[in-house]
TrEMBL record:
This is HD/PDEase domain-containing protein. It comes from Microlunatus phosphovorus (strain ATCC 700054 / DSM 10555 / JCM 9379 / NBRC 101784 / NCIMB 13414 / VKM Ac-1990 / NM-1). SUPFAM superfamilies: HD-domain/PDEase-like. InterPro entries: HD/PDEase_dom (IPR003607), HD_domain (IPR006674). Residues 35-115 form the HD/PDEase domain.
Length: 185
């Protein structure tokens, strides 16, 4: 990554985050900057996808950024050692809960996103799926399986996306704007 590039991309992701809530989002992006490139780019694309999937629904932007940034960091060694008894999604959720406590984000705000991080690997949502869990799960799967593959329609249908695969591509391009090219480099 070029010098300063991570902070430029992080700043672009912070644009819709209210100023008072930026410290937790910025801290999560700082932790993400230490991760391998494939985790960094996947997580940043997830922010864009989750925002696009949210549409007009009210979403806590700071915690959306933090949850997307931290959702796979439980794979890394530091998190694995701190919570060795937990699977990686639960370790990632614990990282988000810890950051929420550090920045005095109320449990009423943080818990739905922690729950979403812990369940983001589920291929389908259940009856108990919250808005936050649905956004995170769908964004993770959409990014992980790719756009433009032959399986897009099947995956989109299985994940209950309201769009067909070509519409999902348009959604990604719309929410990504000009910074999408930077996110995949």
């Amino acid at each position: 990554m070029a010098e300063g590039r991570g902070s430029e991309l992080g700043d672009a992701l912070l644009d819709p985050v209210p100023v008072g809530d930026r410290p937790i989002a910025r801290a999560a992006l700082t932790q993400l900057d230490q991760a391998p490139a494939e985790i960094r780019t996947h997580s940043r694309r997830m922010v864009l996808l989750a925002r696009g999937l949210a549409g007009d629904r009210p979403v806590d932007q700071a915690l959306l950024v933090a949850a997307c940034a931290l959702h796979d960091l439980g794979l890394l060694a530091d998190a694995s050692h701190r919570w060795s008894r937990l699977g990686f999604p639960d370790r990632s959720a614990a990282l988000l809960a810890e950051l929420g406590d550090e920045y005095e984000i109320g449990r009423d705000r943080a818990d739905p996103w922690c729950w979403a991080v812990a369940r983001h690997l589920r291929p389908r949502g259940g009856a108990d799926e919250t808005l936050e869990a649905g956004l995170l799960r769908r964004a993770a799967w959409l990014d992980a399986v790719g756009i433009g593959s032959r399986t897009d329609r099947t995956v989109a249908r299985g994940l209950r996306f309201p769009h067909s695969a070509p519409e999902s591509l348009r959604l990604l391009l719309r929410v990504g704007g000009g910074c999408l090219r930077d996110l995949v480099r």
